[in-house]
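User: What would this chain look like folded?
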Amino acid sequence: MSSLNPGSEDARRRTSRIRRSLISFLDRQEEELIRRQAEIVTSRQVIFQLLAEQAEAGPADEHRGARRLEGREAIQSLIRTMAHTCTSEVAVFATGGGQPAESLEAAKPLDSTVLERGVSVRYVYLDSVRNDGATTAYAQWLTRKGGQVRTVPHLPTRLLIYDRALAIVPVNPQVADAAVLALEDVGVVNALQALFERTWDQASPLGEDRTRDSHGLTAQERAVLELLARGLTDEMIARKLAVSVRTVRRMTAGMMNRLNAGSRFQAGVLAVARGWLRG
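Assistant: Here's the prediction, encoded as structure tokens.
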């Protein structure tokens, strides 16, 4: 079998074609990313401005359809009120992986009250909850009651939306129970609802096996690869996916082995070249 001499004309042409293909792929990926970001950039700016302004405002101040609430009791009081007054739907992003037992215990009567009135309840958890017995049991209970539960590899923020009219988001996602904003601005709530719907469409029902794509990757493995390509460390990826660093390293090693890559950087280049990373 003949092989190409690295210095031959054919080898140079092949290298040039590979380079052009990679650049073309990255250009398409960047264009798609810009298009997606443009859909919510205006609302994102409004939300971030609200967060910045409310961070300096007092707990009782209201501004542009946003109320700031501080402390677990004030936040839970609003959630209880909305659970008893909402009429059509509740949409939830539950970040943090497996949920604390006390949080599940507090949510159960509220979710039960909502579902008994025929209100639609949809939860999106992280994929990692599939390995948490208490949260999985809660999700199964919720499904039996008529709710719907799906999972994704990672979520942008903790979020509750009631009747497409009021959204609750943490001021600091790292300390979700410290302070929240209750948002009623129509444009902001619509943007958050659109984010929820896009995420919901891409999520997997909890009761189903996690499917693999045409390259044999689960959604969680693909998320690890995408975050690696963005330069995140194993520790940062583990926090985003709510899994252990050991799990991230195991998945990374498995994908590097499949790609026959000698380094994380080479794994990223090969994943792009083989179409594992999508725009």
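The radius of gyration is 22 Å. If you want, I can go into more detail on any region.
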